[in-house]
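user: Kindly work through both lines:
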Amino acid sequence: MEIMFKYSASSMYNFRKSFFPSFLVAFLRKSHIGSKPLFLPRTAKLQVSIAENIPNTKQIAVEGPNGCLSLYLPSYIDINHCSLTNKVKVSVENPMIKKQRSMWGTARSLLSNMIVGVTEYHHVTLRLVGIGYKAFIENDSFLSLKVGYSHPILLKIPDGVFVTCPSPTQIILKGCDKVIVTQFAANIRKWRKPEPYKGKGIYVDDEKIILKSAKTR
C-alpha cells in the first residue's frame, strides 16, 4: 500500500518557520569557531569581572608566568572556565544577531592570544638579507639597523617586548602582547621591505618573495 502525505501551503510555511530558525541556531552554536574551547594552562589564572565606569562591558584578565594582560569585551560575551578540565568556553547571548556572531570568534581569538602570551610569549623572527646589512642592540633600549642608508636607523624598543640578535642578520622579538610584538616587527620591516630583483630586505618569519628578472633595454 502506498501512503501519500499532503501538505497545505500554510502548514509548509509554519514548518519552515519553526524548524529552520532552531536548526540554524543549533548549527551556529556547534560550528562557529568561537565555540571551540580553549585550554588554560595551570600556570595561568583567568578572572572575569564587570568593568568599572564602562557600561555593558566586562573586563577579562589573564595572568601567567610571563605577565598579565587584560581585555574589555561587550557584556553579551560570556566566558566560562571549568576548573576540572581547565577548558575555557566563549559564547554569546544570541548567535542569531550578526554583531554578536561576528564578535564571538574575535573574542575567542583575543583570549587565545592572551593565554599564549602570558604562558609562552609570542615570537617573531626577522632576517636581514643584503651586503652589509646588520642589526644590534644599543643601551638595552634601542634596536640599531644598518640596512643600506648613510646612517644607522635607531628604533626604540617598546615596553613589554624583548629583543635579541643571535647574529648580525637575525632579530628575535618576543612579548606577551601579540599586537605590540607584530606591530614592532612591521615597523622594523618597513625600513627595508624585500625588493623583488635582488631579494635584499628585511624578512619576517618564513616570508618569501618571487624574484623578478632585471629589466633589459
Observations:
- The helical segments are 9-31, 98-120, 178-189.
- The longest helix spans residues 9-31.
- The mean pLDDT is 87.
- Residues 38-120 form a domain with the Outer Surface Protein A; domain 3 fold (CATH 3.90.930.12).
